Every structure is written in structure tokens, then in C-alpha cells.
Amino acid sequence: MSHTPSDVKRAAVVATGVIGASWAAYFLARGLDVDATDPSPGAEARLREAVAQHWPTMVRFGLADGAATERLRFHARLEDAVAQADFVQENGPERIDIKIDLFRRMDAAAPPATLLASSSSGLAISAVQSECKHPGRVVLGHPFNPPHLIPLVEVVGGEHTSAEAIARAMAFYSAIGKRPIHVRREVKGHIANRLQAALWREAFHLVEQGVATVADIDTAIAHGPGLRWALMGPFMNLHLSGGAGGIAHLLDHLGGPIEDWWHDLGAPSMTAELKRQVAEGMADELGGRRSADLEAARDALLLDLIRAKAASATLE
């Protein structure tokens, strides 16, 4: 893991649900002081419990110098949490009115040089920064769940975000071991969620049409293309499938059929009946297995995979 850049020593985590708690554990593991806040009753106890649960994984990842759970401080007031922060990661509800108010208050309370980032999975950062007096420092820093494990962070600037803020956010996330990408234009769902949504759309369509069960579709991905996707992205996989001629050769030969498949893809509606089919299919696939056990097994394998990829000199 890289060391934290010298200008970021203290991070504030605003809203400490599943995503916020994951960020808090990760920032602590990177050797940062963390100030957290959440207005929900019992939030501090839940946060400290979540950090304790994540910490063994952070230890396996490798802790930065000085990393300690004791460097976590919880504040009742939002303004107190951000008052000394070098970087703020906000994780509140996906409601634009709440985001606008949070960023207005954070902008008023945080030091002038502090970057303000939102974990929002779909809201436009231009709207989020709309009532800030210093909107140039507001960015979207969307993680992929769970942030304490998955390296991806999507960085998006709004209408008034400065180029410097984008560069600083990219540098910060890179320095703490993340793999940030700069989303050049605001779009709903950013990049990764849009790609997921495209797959989900066809998965639900295939269930609706009786082509496959929920378990069949999970097997098709988890034991098929998903194995390759965990190592390389879709374009690189296409390139390797093209042999010596690479992706240009593949598209010359399969571009037509691929386009034909596009035209045949479904457009299902999330009806009550379809939701029932998928929920029942998931119950059948689980077969009594507990979600908590599946999450633990998933996270253990994810950690091994991420460490193996990091050690590869070829796969980036």
C-alpha cells in the first residue's frame, strides 16, 4: 500500500452507515486520523463495531505506519467533525435535498483547502454543490462496495469543480491504495453502475422470459466471464480473444453478431411478478446458506485476489 500524501492527515467521514463505516476503517488503516459523524441514534456504537469487524481484514491487507482504531473520533455535530479535516468523505442518503444541505453546511465549516467528496452512487455533483460558497472543491468520489476492499473510486467534477480539485482527489485516492478513474462527464450512475445495470437488465429479462433460473444466471457469470472480468476489463478481454490480430481482428469478424445480440436484448419492467420470481429464485439458490457466511467467504477470496493482482507485474 502507498503512503498517505503529506497534505492529508485527517479525514472526516460524514454519515457512517455501511459505506461510511467501510471508509472509516480504510482511512484508519492508511494511518489517518478520522473524525466521524452521524445523527442516527446509536450510530457511534454501530460504527465502532463495524470498524472492529473490518479490522482483521485491514491487518491482512497491511497497515500503514501509525494505523490504529484509537485514531477514530466521533462527533455529535457535523460542523465539529469537518472543522479540522483535510479531506471529507460524505455518505448520506441518496436524496438530493439532503446532499445539498450537507454540502452547504460542510462548505461553511471545513477549512478552505479541504476537499469535499460525496460517495453518491447516482446523483449529479453539479446539483450537490449548488448551494456551496466554494463549489470548486466539491467532487464526487464514488467507491465500489465495500470501500475497505474494492479499489475502484469514480471521481467526477461538477459544473463548478476546479481542475485542481479533480487532480487532488485523484492523487489522494491513488496514494491510499485506491484505483481512481476520472469520469469526464456527469451521467446517471457514473460508469461502473451503468455497466452493472446493463447486465442486470438482461439477467432480469432472461428470468422473466423463462430462459434461465436465478441460480443458472449466477452460475453463468460466476463460473464464466466473471472469472475473466475479475482480472481484466471487457475491452482487454475482447482484445485477447482476437488472437494475434487483437480487438481490431475480433471486431471485424464478430462486430456484426455482437450488434445483432444488442438488438435482441430485453427491456424488462420491474413488475411485482418479476420481483417475486427473482426473490423466490434467490431463496432457492441460497438453500439455507446465510448471507453473512457468503459475505465472509466472498471478502476472504476478494482480499486474496486483490493482493495477487497487486503483485502482478502485468495485470494492472
Question: Your description of this structure?
Answer:
The chain has 316 residues and is of the alpha/beta class. Helices cover 51% and strands 12% of the residues. It contains 13 helices and 8 strands. Strands 3-2-1-4-5-6-7-8 form an 8-stranded mixed beta sheet, sandwiched between helices. Strand 4, helix 4 and strand 5 form a beta-alpha-beta unit. Helix 10 (234-241) packs across helix 11 (246-264). The longest helix is centred in the last third of the chain and has 21 residues, at 291-311. It is globular and about 55 Å long.
Q: Beta-strand percentage?
A: 5-15%
For the CA atoms, what is the radius of gyration? Answer: 21 Å
Mean pLDDT: 95
Measured as a percent range, the helix fraction is 40-55%
Structure described in brief:
The protein has 316 residues and is an alpha/beta fold. It is built from 13 helices and 8 strands.
Features:
single chain; 316 residues; 51% helix; 12% strand; globular
Would you spell out the secondary-structure blueprint of this structure?
Layout: E1 10-14, H1 18-29, E2 33-37, H2 43-61, E3 72-75, H3 78-82, E4 87-90, H4 96-109, E5 115-118, H5 125-128, E6 138-143, E7 152-157, H6 163-175, E8 179-183, H7 192-208, H8 214-222, H9 225-229, H10 234-241, H11 246-264, H12 272-286, H13 291-311
Parallel strand pairs: 1-2, 1-4, 2-3, 4-5, 5-6, 7-8
Antiparallel strand pairs: 6-7
Helix pairs in contact: 1-2, 10-11
